[in-house]
Amino acid sequence: MVRKKKKKKRKSTGSSLIKYGDYTLDDADDDQEDLDSSRGGMIFKWKAGKNIIRVIPPLPGYKWRLRVYEHLINVPGIGWVSFVCPRLMAKEFCPGCNKRDKLLRSKNKVDIKFAKDLRPRRNNYANAILRKEEEGGPRVINFGPQIEEQLIEMRKDPDLGGNFVNPIKGFDIVVRKKGEKLNTEYKVYPVGKGRSTPLHEDATIMNAWIENQHALERFAVVPTADQIEAKMRGEEIDDEEAEDRGSRKRKRSKKSIDEELDEIEDADWEDYEEEEEDDEDYDEEE
Known about the structure:
Layout: H1 25-39, E1 43-44, E2 49-55, E3 65-75, E4 79-84, H2 86-90, H3 95-104, H4 109-117, E5 120-130, E6 139-143, H5 145-156, E7 173-178, E8 185-190, H6 203-211, H7 225-232, E9 235-237, E10 248-250, H8 257-264
Parallel strand pairs: 1-6
Antiparallel strand pairs: 2-5, 2-7, 3-4, 3-5, 5-6, 7-8, 9-10
Helix pairs in contact: 3-4
């Protein structure tokens, strides 16, 4: 006779378990925000309302901001992708511009709509201190013509503030964001009517901020024609092999821009008509 082993009963822990806390999704979101802020190299996303910044003066031999011309396109089934324009940045062949030129010669309104979306846009990158997050050190801000033009006007007119990058006699700047997406507006003005304030009261911290600012050249790296064509097909470039013109992998199997155009070539224009995108609006890809 085989004896059956008695199964040990598990003790119930429900009633004897002490009280404990939790790690909620909201907590995780807060942690992610703190983590992003602490990284410093993350591009700052303008928040609704008042953003107070101080532009860090450039290192010798560099300009206060780096201007980059980029293509921002909506790839069917993938979403918004961007890439530096080789034609405007390096006088090299650009598949994006080549595609745009072909579409502009078309009499089809949908083609012309796509051509408009493919135009290179002027974008800027600069180092700045976010006054509400000074402990994070230098951050990268990016902005389009709307903010850029107001900053240039401010620099040229002493009544509007003057030289805002001077670490001693410069001043903080308010960038007020209103609206979303296509209706986004930015108003730029000096804090305290341009009253001079130092970048930081402590010279050691001020020097560290200037010396440790981010290298902006990384945002102007010109991709190869193969890499651009891969992006326009909805493919993702392998970052580890991109510098070697390396391998590409499918992000997901979707229609390319060419296939999408073929399908809607004879479609009614009214079905695809959208408002013209503002050069300033990069929020939708962030």
